[in-house]
Amino acid sequence: MLDLDLTRRDFLKTSGTVLMGTLAITTGVLSVLAPSQTWALELTKLDKATGQTLLQATRHIFPHATLDDAVYALVVKDLDAAAASDDGVAKLLTRGAAELNTGAGGDWLAADSDKQFAVIEKMAGNDFFEKIKGTAVVSLYNNEMAWAHFGYEGDAWKEGGYLTRGFNDLNWLPDPPADASPAAFSAKS
Amino acid sequence: MAKYDLDDDGVVVIVGSGAGGGTLANELCQKGIQVVLLEAGGHESNDSFVNNEWGSFGQISWLDSRSSSGSWRVGKDFNGLPAWICKTVGGSTTHWAGASLRIQDHEFRVKTEYGDIEGANLLDWPITLKDLEPYYDKAEDKMGVTRTNGIPGLPGNNNFKVMHAGATKLGYKNCHIGRMAINSKPRDGRAHCLQLGFCFQGCKSGAKWSTLVAEIPKAEATGKLDLRPKSHVLKIEQDKTGKVSGVIYADSDGNQHMQKARAVCVAGNSIESPRLLLNSENNQSPNGLANSSGQVGKNYMRHMTGSVYAAFEKPVHMWRGTTMAGIITDESGNDTKRGFVGGYEMETLALGLPFMAAFLDPGAWGHDFTRKMDEYSHMAGMWLVGEDMPQESNAVSLHAENKDQHGMPTPNVHFDDHPNDIAMREHAYKQGSAVYDAAGAKENYLVPPYPSTHNLGTCRMSANAKDGVCNAHGQTHDISNLFISDGSQFTTGAAENPTLTIVTLAIRQADYIAKQMSEKAI
Fold it and tell me: From the CB of residue B223, how many other CB atoms can be counted at a distance below 10 Å?
């Protein structure tokens, strides 16, 4: 189902290295895909506060109002993995998070959304911002929960393609004539 | 499969197994000629291909170090990835969409037709459409191109319905499902199209023609082909008589081997082919092989490209079905009243969500970007592809310092848009938007060029040896047993997707090589 490690880890609730959340919309498509309504991401390198800051920073850089935090957490997961394999990245992210706090006068996460945005907007183009953006533009949109959210259907092969599943089901425009677009091949015909 | 000795100097060595090299290999093998086909990439299959954009990108793309320079936007957005082409058995035919259009008559003689264009290094091809027609016939039959040879067209998908509705309303006369090398019904031992929507990712059903699924298996069946994947050619050797005598290549462990050859055919795509010739410099050829004209690597073309995506009130689901599934050809002629020479094609194109995020507006962020992404399921899309101007300064060259994993200098791709390219792109954006406006679009998104898939012209054919690298048969002017067998041969780019013409030239070249061999000319 999910190819990324989001599992319930209640027993780690008190740990300083676990990001947790509950799916905001429990009846939507994500609740079908997600293994549980609670998600958790155990960080391997970054601390919890940095992880939360990166998640919120990603929400400002690629803001989709109704896209669940569980999807944004996948960006944090990839940033944490990059930090774990490269000390330079770890320092970049830790310092960047500290810089956000400084810009907000102490606690960036506690500031209101407009204030948060004003601070992060000033960092646009710097290495910290670009690292999050460059990671997120791939990670945020390259997972099954995001595909479900945006309506993209992903792997078509496992479903046998769209030949009998709506490749030409658009019905709000006139159908092209047969000389422009002939009927599909059918083994029966 | 055949296995030839490294010392066997009777074999024809082909470098690269894509549209040019893979086709040439099969054609030569069918004539009984012994072929060693060296492919830098690994051997994937329909089974190993994946319906996943980034997964496939990592599996089949050419990701070795490259750099780019110049004022083109690709150089800014994707500096280390100037081209989106493949390193795998089958080359970029594993990735191509399948659009198979013949170059138009006038596009073979653009210097005559267009006259002198400032900054453009225009030249007429040394061949005409008439010369190629019998070979186009063979290529279309070989590839099973729909709407030729009595093969029915593919059915249009949702993305095409939007294009067709808009084109019709706008008054365009030539909008149809196109000519595609994708089986609309089972043919040539391969299945029909399942409308997977992953044409760029290798086509798991095998309906799309590629050298991987069509030419190479047929060549292997002759017993004449020695295919060596993961064999990256670093240098072509030249003997005292001036002929080429073999190639040095690195295997998957990085060990280097020298394969002797009776003739060498270079088909590494228009970045790797000139890179190889330039890296093969020696005392006799101090500027690189076959480069007495100084034109090796020059006149790099990549087509004028751009995309228009449009958001609609109702869902489109453009990703369902063939990636390129329809065309408008009304703008493909040379009508200078539009403010530029040459023409362009408008072809449907769809990206999955992951690649839409990467390509919609590279580098963008914030609400304006995410607002557009939120429209994804309601988007239709088209690619604009037209003739770009050859410029001598647009060039593939060897990087002065950077080396790849084998110690070979990496290629740098320099490109500046010609004013004609820019004028054409502006016109194409306007017309593409008009098509979608006519179909009721809420908003159009003008998307900049992707890394180049149509790389052309860096070893161009010319009537006169001083103007280009090879003759009308792809035989280099300087060295009789050295051939250019890919899109590098193109004298000019024309508006059409190039694969059909690359295959056509390879079929024609095979006849020529066989004749030269039987006459002992090479």
Answer: 11
Contact B205, B191 (CB under 8 A): yes
The nearest CA of chain B is from the CA of A82 a distance in Å of: 18
The three-state secondary structure class of A177 is coil
The string of pLDDT tens digits covering residues B390-413 is 999 999 999 999 999 999 999 999
Best A140, A142, A167, A188 member to test B by mutation, with max B CBs in 10 Å, is: A167
d(CA B87, CA B40): 6
The predicted pLDDT at position A10 comes to 43
According to the 3-state scheme, what is the secondary structure of B104-166? CHHHHCHHHHHCCCCCCCCCCCCCCHHHHHHHHHHHHHHHCCCCCCCCCCCCCCHHHHHHHHH
Burial of B293 per CB tally in 10 Å (0-12, 13-18, 19+): buried
Cβ distance B270 to B396 under 8 Å? yes
Smallest CA–CA distance, residue A141 to chain B, in Å, is 5
When pLDDT is cut at 50, 70 and 90, the band that residue B426 belongs to is very high
What is the spatial distance between Cα B269 and Cα A89, in angstroms, rounded to a whole number? 36
For B200, the enclosing helix (H) or strand (E) is none
Closest CA to B273 of B296, B293, B295: B296
Question: What band does A38 get if pLDDT is binned at 50, 70 and 90?
Answer: confident
DSSP string over B161-192: HHHHHHHHHHT-S-EES--BSB-SS-BTTBPP
How far apart (Å, rounded) are the C-alpha atoms in residues B244 and B248?
A: 12
pLDDT band at B58 (very low <50, low <70, confident <90, very high): very high
Residue with tokens 């191509």: B96
**Contact present, A128 and A95 (Cβ < 8 Å):** yes
Instruction: Say which residues have a Cβ less than 8 Å from residue A170's Cβ, sequence separation at least 6.
Output: B158, B161, B162, B314, B315, B316, B317
* Mean pLDDT over the full length of chain B: 98
φ, ψ of residue A92 in degrees (nearest 5): -55, -45
B104-158 pLDDT tens trace? 999 999 999 999 999 999 999 999 999 999 999 999 999 999 999 999 999 999 9
What are the sequence ranges of the domains in chain A? 10-154, 156-189
Quick one: closest CA in A to B157, which residue? A168
Using DSSP, state whether A72 is helix, strand or coil.
helix
Q: Which of B56, B317, B328 to mutate to test the interface with A (most CBs of A within 10 A)?
A: B317
**What size, in residues, is chain A?**
189
Predicted confidence at residue A8, as pLDDT, reads 42
Measured CA to CA in angstroms, residue B34 lies from B104, B128, B222, B511 at distances of 35, 30, 10, 14
**Chain A interface includes B323 (CB < 8 A):** no
Min Cα separation B360/chain A (Å):
11
Give alpha helix (H) positions in B31-128: 53-60, 73-77, 110-114
How many whole angstroms separate alpha carbon B285 and alpha carbon B277? 10
Tokens coding B1: 């499969």
Residues of chain B with C-beta less than 8 angstroms from the C-beta of A176: 156, 160-161, 164-165, 175
Asked if A161 lies within 8 A of B197 by C-beta distance, the reply is yes
* Residue the block writes with tokens 């186009």: B136
Q: Are A108 and A53 in contact (CB under 8 A)?
A: yes
How, if at all, do strands B395-403 and B244-250 pair?
A: unpaired
For A22, the 3-state DSSP assignment is: strand
